[in-house]
Design goal:
mainly alpha
């Protein structure tokens, strides 16, 4: 990459992915989906993330989501599409995005030139995204681009999020981390979800988490306290480096100045959203 080392990674983690993820922890999403007849929070999560692919079944979603327990996915898909079709779900999700961003950021920020600038920069970055072997990105790339700047920005962050995510799954296979091992090792970095949310959102039991922890210890990647060893830290960094390599094109296309600007604006928006309570306080960390 010709960009400063890890600049794209830091922008993605600090400005792009958090803006996208605000909707998944928003009460507005539950409200919109309840109006459709979808009330189970897990069904809401699964339907909202997969609707861009159409009325898919459990197999496709387990594959593309990677770290959800298949039994959980099969409990809700494809049955949820009998309650509301994919287009209804996508429309409800966008209404929830609109309500969420307005609530977290306020009308002044929503209508600001900075949000419009960030939306254009993020959409420019997506011009260099590629479709091959990127199922979730490609499905979302087929959706229309919203006209309102704050919704356009959210749409662009979704494209960039799924583009990096699809590549990340390939990198997970290369380094040899199965779905639960990927989650446990990420949690061990201090930047992943706590076990509470691995169970609540991803559907894993404590026995699943314990077994994966044991496998990682056997490989010398975790120590007895559940912290990453030197080998584990090196593997996680190799994983991120490969993900960076596979996701370089959009940010190279944007250029150093554009990347710095979207990191600046998006980082400020993320901080504002977090301060307004966008995410649960116990979402991230080791415990």
């Amino acid at each position: 990459m010709t960009l400063p080392a890890h600049a794209a990674r830091h922008c993605w983690h600090g400005a792009i992915n958090p803006l996208h993820a605000t909707v998944y922890f928003s009460p507005d999403l539950g409200k919109e989906f309840a109006a459709l007849g979808i009330t189970d929070p897990r069904a809401v999560n699964l339907a909202s993330r997969s609707a861009a692919m159409g009325a898919v079944g459990a197999g496709a979603v387990t594959s593309t989501f990677y770290n959800y327990r298949h039994d959980l996915v099969a409990e809700h898909l494809p049955a949820v599409w009998d309650t509301a079709g994919p287009q209804q779900v996508l429309d409800a999700r966008m209404r929830a995005v609109d309500a969420t961003l307005r609530r977290l950021l306020g009308a002044g920020t929503i209508g600001s030139p900075e949000v419009a600038e960030a939306a254009e920069l993020a959409m420019r970055a997506t011009e260099a995204c590629t479709r091959h072997a990127r199922t979730l990105y490609s499905a979302h790339a087929d959706l229309p681009v919203p006209e309102e700047p704050h919704l356009k920005l959210w749409h662009a962050t979704t494209l960039l999020r799924e583009h990096r995510g699809d590549g990340h799954l390939a990198a997970l296979l290369v380094v040899g981390l199965d779905p639960v091992e990927a989650l446990i090792s990420h949690t061990a970095t201090g930047h992943g979800m706590t076990p509470k949310y691995l169970k609540a959102i991803r559907g894993w039991d404590q026995s699943d988490l314990d077994a994966a922890t044991g496998r990682l210890r056997d490989r010398g990647l975790l120590n007895a306290a559940g912290d990453l060893t030197a080998e584990g830290t090196a593997l996680r960094e190799a994983l991120e480096e490969e993900t960076d390599r596979l996701d370089a094109a959009p940010y190279e296309h944007l250029g150093e100045a554009g990347l710095a600007r979207i990191a600046e604006i998006g980082g400020g928006l993320t901080l504002q959203a977090v301060t307004a309570g966008a995410f649960p306080g116990d979402l991230m960390g080791k415990a």
